[in-house]
Sequence to fold (151 residues):
Amino acid sequence: MAVEHTIRSNFVFAPPEGDTGAWQASLETFKDALARAFPDAFLEMSTSSLRDVPVLDFEIEVAPEVFVTGTAAMPAPDYAHISLIDVTADEAALFAQWLRDSYVPSPDSVRFLSSFVMENGDEAPWPLPATGDATAIEAVMRDHLATAGAE
Fold:
């Protein structure tokens, strides 16, 4: 089933289940990594209204004229997640490739889920491919979206 290229969703990235500390992440290390990789990034620390924990809000240009907005929450060494807001699979894939290849310590330590699929009853995260470029990641994200019956 082909998935339309314009479907927009929120995508959440997290460490593997059962190894929530796999990223060895903190908001400071993530903020520093974003600032190095995306020099014109908008980065702002705030507090989540949902959980009263520190978060990093960001907007970055992942490719020329392709911007993604997101929030990272890493309140403890054993917990992390990064959310991208209202993006297409190709936009999310560009960010996911950077996250996998440049930030997390192991390429097989990222899983993802979309709000589009969750709204259709499936809350099971998918592993991000450990290899491949953004096009390969995008194909997996489109397959993920297709599980919700998207056309």
Notes: Strands lie at 9-14, 42-47, 54-63, 66-76, 79-87, 111-114, 126-127.
